[in-house]
Amino acid sequence: MSGSIYGNLFKISTWGESHGKGIGVVVDGCPAGLTLTEEMIQVYLNRRRPGQTKYATPRKECDQVEILSGVFEQKTTGTPISLVVMNTNQHSGDYSEIANYYRPGHADYTYDEKYGFRDYRGGGRSSGRETIGRVAAGAVAMAILNQLGINVCAYTKSIGDISIDYKNCNKENILLSPLAMPDLQASMAAQALLDLKMQELDSVGGVIECIVSGMPTGIGEPVFDKLDANLAKAILSIGAVKGIEFGSGFQSSQMSGSDNNDNFRLDNEGKVRKLTNHAGGVLGGISDGTEIIFRASVKPTPSIAKTQDTINKSGENIKVNIKGRHDPIIVPRGVVVVEAMTAVTIVDMLFMSMTSRIDNIKKFFGH
Amino acid sequence: MSGSIYGNLFKISTWGESHGKGIGVVVDGCPAGLTLTEEMIQVYLNRRRPGQTKYATPRKECDQVEILSGVFEQKTTGTPISLVVMNTNQHSGDYSEIANYYRPGHADYTYDEKYGFRDYRGGGRSSGRETIGRVAAGAVAMAILNQLGINVCAYTKSIGDISIDYKNCNKENILLSPLAMPDLQASMAAQALLDLKMQELDSVGGVIECIVSGMPTGIGEPVFDKLDANLAKAILSIGAVKGIEFGSGFQSSQMSGSDNNDNFRLDNEGKVRKLTNHAGGVLGGISDGTEIIFRASVKPTPSIAKTQDTINKSGENIKVNIKGRHDPIIVPRGVVVVEAMTAVTIVDMLFMSMTSRIDNIKKFFGH
Amino acid sequence: MSGSIYGNLFKISTWGESHGKGIGVVVDGCPAGLTLTEEMIQVYLNRRRPGQTKYATPRKECDQVEILSGVFEQKTTGTPISLVVMNTNQHSGDYSEIANYYRPGHADYTYDEKYGFRDYRGGGRSSGRETIGRVAAGAVAMAILNQLGINVCAYTKSIGDISIDYKNCNKENILLSPLAMPDLQASMAAQALLDLKMQELDSVGGVIECIVSGMPTGIGEPVFDKLDANLAKAILSIGAVKGIEFGSGFQSSQMSGSDNNDNFRLDNEGKVRKLTNHAGGVLGGISDGTEIIFRASVKPTPSIAKTQDTINKSGENIKVNIKGRHDPIIVPRGVVVVEAMTAVTIVDMLFMSMTSRIDNIKKFFGH
Amino acid sequence: MSGSIYGNLFKISTWGESHGKGIGVVVDGCPAGLTLTEEMIQVYLNRRRPGQTKYATPRKECDQVEILSGVFEQKTTGTPISLVVMNTNQHSGDYSEIANYYRPGHADYTYDEKYGFRDYRGGGRSSGRETIGRVAAGAVAMAILNQLGINVCAYTKSIGDISIDYKNCNKENILLSPLAMPDLQASMAAQALLDLKMQELDSVGGVIECIVSGMPTGIGEPVFDKLDANLAKAILSIGAVKGIEFGSGFQSSQMSGSDNNDNFRLDNEGKVRKLTNHAGGVLGGISDGTEIIFRASVKPTPSIAKTQDTINKSGENIKVNIKGRHDPIIVPRGVVVVEAMTAVTIVDMLFMSMTSRIDNIKKFFGH
Fold it and tell me: Cα–Cα 20 to 30 A to C263, which of A137, A227, C42, C155?
């Protein structure tokens, strides 16, 4: 079974390799009547496009999205939405050398083991360009969430050992920093760190934090399709992500129950509030109405120019320097991908929650 | 949609609440011809049974499993396997008080919000007893993995700030420690910490580490059904788990690429080896043939006797002391649940991988 | 993969063999707040129980259903509902002879080929008793449909060449006839035909017609999860069913378009009506608001006492007379199974339709 | 939920409307290493292209397929295969009038009811052009089946009351008849019938028969994912299909068990044979190794030039003559679609069957 389809009710089916003709996604299950244009989607795709900063590889990619189906007079019809970005800037020659060896930290070896061979050009399906389909689908999901007052906002929380504190998630600040780090002072320190890494022909990792606000309560389907469980799958499916934690996460393993429990209070208007949010907005796998907060750990870019030991397909131990310009950091480009996968998952789970109570179902059908 | 069914080819459908008549699981997709007995399953269930140590609540539960279908003359028939544990020791009276308020850190509030009401007795479906179904299914999965030389081994890596180093995962050592901590010195220190927490009417969290050995390469289905992504969902679906990381995990966010990359080497027999395993056995979402290693972060037990602030259903702010005996730690009981969910996921993914190559399919059907 | 789980949002997971310990189903996805009792389910199970007429085999089966989870104070909790009927009247001795040969028309041969062996007692999982799980789940689905004013009614339309015309589907008439044939005169003629078949040590087939009234429009998910496509799968999955047709069905293959098209008219109240219903209530795979009508063709009972040619497991051509009392007709027992599978499918499809329009979703979440 | 994704292990995700930019499909789960070219797919697409006979509407469509991903150096990579046919010959002007009324027999009404509005041009997603995606995916499935010696062959069995007897399914004969009717004499008689219908400004229906040869035994997953149940869903999902029957189908409802049962015999080489094939190659939902035979009933083309009663969107009863050239028969164009959906389903079910026995799994993984 291939695993390029994600979702239960809001399904996305992605396709495309780094050096194939194009990359895209089919969104199946988007409700009818939603305003959707290519511009709305392009905004998100532009946030993943390299070349904006000196820390991204200069392969210029236009990545213009086209809507091929599912929209009529700028409204979704309820039928599948096919989104395509044609590959216009691919040089197969750049990559022919790596056809013969396995780059450390990349999926070259595992794809060969799985399929018997691989499209070696640029990483094929394991390339970061595969995220184009995810981000395009995420744009559609965001359009739905906007209708429901739900906001998804991710940013770079740390690069290497330079970390920032959580503040109001302000989209403008995130866009001002070339590293998607809303603390501009830390952003500059991180830039210095990256310059150093580039000199060393090396790379570094980081952490992306994501906050979802405006969630209704009751979203999540115990015991297996819990909200945090599905978000974990969605985020871990993003290349280079090696960990995820919700709320106080790994820190809670060292806390006492009295400190980690979030206490409930009723405010003056009789609305239920929590004094803290160590739960990260999810209790028993179901949203509790407060902000959902999680962090994803991103490993350092595997492609580095530094000399590395590896093996080639002829069965020899060799040393390689992977040619070409390399991003010293993946994190800033992953921010919009984390938002996209989160949005897609939240929409799917909102849809799943609609059948929890017989009263709601009766009301829906006019009884 | 309810989310009590897990898996694509090896599916488990769990049911049962803490104070209902019983708890169980239906395993659909277990291949025919596998030896399976109630004793084989009981071994795993016994590992989750409280009362073995002074750190677990003394509700005596016999939890004897019964096979109701899918096995004939001690061999699986390929038809669904229904496993049941009848609840014999439930006192509804113990819990009637909590019907009227929301225990902090528990799913009482979110279940009420989702369904409109809840079975308040003992936590209903959000109770830890729900894991009986998972563990029983895990036993079936383990029986399959044993046939394939794959071993799943989890243990307590840390309790509070007492942590141990990874050594050979030796099942006997784990069973010797009442806390499933294979470093017996650390186990005693942790016991002292727990005694302190009990005196304080409080609790503490911990981390469970899990190691899968004997994995073939090529298991995992990019881009969404990656091996680590599916394991993340499976583990995060376990109650009280708030984070997961693979290999160097969150630490890799602060490492350089040259340090974090695992280099490939061919050994004397020409077999592919890695010098390190920061990847945790998964590259590009696919197994690379080395050990899969991940850690799950478990929050401290929410139920504590200490006074806490919360609200009741009549809309008042109140203070509560949750009556009854409480486990100061969930982690040791969660170890077998982590193994179970890992085993179930690995089996499902092994099955999914069988159709990756046309050559294998032709051979399978005799062409 | 085993195929004992059915549904997308309203999922049923059946288990159990003819001579195992019990037979049951887990219903996952039933909304919370629905009144559900064992009596409500027993009503449906009683309609499949043999021994009521002289045309059904006299194995007395009590088939009392028990609710093991998912209901609290007579209301569904939204958690999985486990329903069980324990087997109390199974004689393994009755069937030992057929362990060694393949009964014509039965699944003995194909189960052996698929799994390598089979539970030969009474047909194992291929036995008609497997329908207990389906009917129990159907009862839950019916409870939901009752809340929505949707009625599912099936009856025997023909036995052999004795056929009746469609009239008002009146449940009382159906229950008056021991053959579930609401035309009592035809019912008596059919009884005579069956007496003849029993004398001949033979059997005969028939057709079940099913009518769903009160359907809202717009139910069905093109292009693959069309309403009629999913009903076809559900009904063809019932043992002994070899065909299905909707509306004018196979007859439409010989009609002209002008005759087969249903014309739309607005009645005095401005409501949309159709002058005919050759479509059987489904247009383009979506309900059109009129009655859904379909017919399922049921083959004659394979187990007959008449001498037949077959082969045994030792590789010899033999002649057999299958011992025991045999039903000369399956159809009357299949009527409630058709209703059950129809109800389960309709509920699932109603749930799936709730996300068709962004307006409805916004309204649902209070926007 | 939208229903444009079909399959469990071999999944197809179709998209596209009659007058959108294009129509296509993403095939997810095709194993790696299969030879696949655009020419191989074009052969199947050409069989659905109108304009070949005088009985098909003269809208010239080039329908050239393009492979956008999933193939490298003419071999499938195991990654998703995106196939596209761009729409080049669509005139929106042709259809503007039907925006305001509901064509009888078409899905105009039901799509409006479901989504609130519809892309009225040419039927939008309910148009026959939607089958392009299915047929392209079917070509990929056929390539797999060819590797396994399995052959799928469909043809026109009847048009109106002109029916033919089943003979060897010879692909050449089918291609010789413009109506895909391998009995050339009957084909001519049917042509005369169609000429008459065109004069009458009317249409007629027919039946497509499909035969699958070379099936292994043991394919099918009781109790819900039976081989015939899944084929029924696949075929009923094709527009205009209103019924399906396997083997003796509806006829068996009037047969006796002694006549309808297929008796097993061992031939001279000790191979299991059946003397008849009333079961249509499926017993208990599992393939028995003989030919799978089923028939699909296709209703007459709804679009006729004859005057019909209907209603318009302003709430008035009107009379219409649907303008334009209309096919008097859908059946010949449906033949390749039936083959495609059958091939896709058979591949999916072959994959599902690979995990039926623990022995096969152990052998697969080298144990």
Answer: C155
